[in-house]
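Field notebook, page 344. I keep forgetting to write these up properly, so this time I am using the form the group agreed on. The chain and the ligand, tryptophan, are recorded exactly as supplied. Prediction of the bound pose follows.
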Amino acid sequence: MNTQNETEKKPRPTRVFSGVQPTANIHLGNYLGAIKRFVSVQHEMESLFCVVDLHAITVPQDPKMLKAQTREVAAAYLAAGIDPKKSIIFVQSNVSAHAELAWVLNCVARMGWLERMTQFKDKAGENSERMSVGLFDYPVLMAADILAYKATHVPVGDDQKQHLELARDIAQRFNTDFKAKGFFPSPEPLIGGPASRVMNLQDGTKKMSKSDPADLSRINLTDDTDTIVRKFKKARTDQFPMPESVDELKSRPEVDNLVGIYAAMAETTKESVVAQFAGQGFGAFKPALADLAVEKLAPITEHMRRLMSDATEIDAILKVGAERANSIAQPILKQVKEIVGFFN
Ligand code: TRP
């Protein structure tokens, strides 16, 4: 019997896309929840890592700072170990396909879908009337980022899950509305690991955030060794000893967070960290955590500083990255325009 056709079935091509916003204070949450995972996934699939400056201006930004922070995120990518020969590192606004595709997808996405987005509701709070239209539309641009490359896998933090679901809905709706079956793939989130959600060091119920006024709440990737040690020492805990089981962490959010951070940096599981420190006091755990953080982060922050002291290298890498990204996105955008019926 001839089974050749079946055995020759081509595997579906895979491609990774992810992005980090160039807003102030890139921090440990960005590193453990995103960038560190980009570094490992680049060896498994073709990968694009973007500095999403179009997303950053959905809230007001100082133009000079925006440019500096864009380089800072690129520096973090490189210093963390993203290899620009292997992966494509670039700035979102340098590839016009993002904005162009976002417009088309704006006309595919439904108001009701966006109104359900919890991140907008959280960010806008009572002030939604005064927010930019861009902030409301943020998830559609994110879908465009991913679909402009027909990316299939998206490593993101836990909080981006809903945005990924929306990207999938938009992709499917485009495919059905325009009778373009299978044109856009359904991008899958890559979420996981012990630190997919790094919390505020002073309040374990809040995410570690770039915008928290309390600097003690986060570890910035630009913090020096002494600052890192001091911040972990001052991190909030409780009066009990280190837990005996992972189950116990459920009711101890601050401790859960520190255990997760330790596990991610040691490249192990929360279980093994709990086993290692069970019953000990924080007087033992916190210095161990600070030492580990310094050991892992110091080479990265030092490399970042070196890269940022002279922008030539970063700028050259970003230029090549934009060209490579553009050469993937342009043919896809051209097909989109064809499908939609734009005149050319
Ligand atoms: N919204 C993402 C975040 O805040 C950043 C982002 C923008 C992104 N576009 C993306 C992540 C596309 C993954 C894919 O973390």
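OBSERVATIONS:
- The chain has a mean pLDDT of 94.
- The longest strand covers residues 16-20.
FOLLOW-UP: compare against the apo run.
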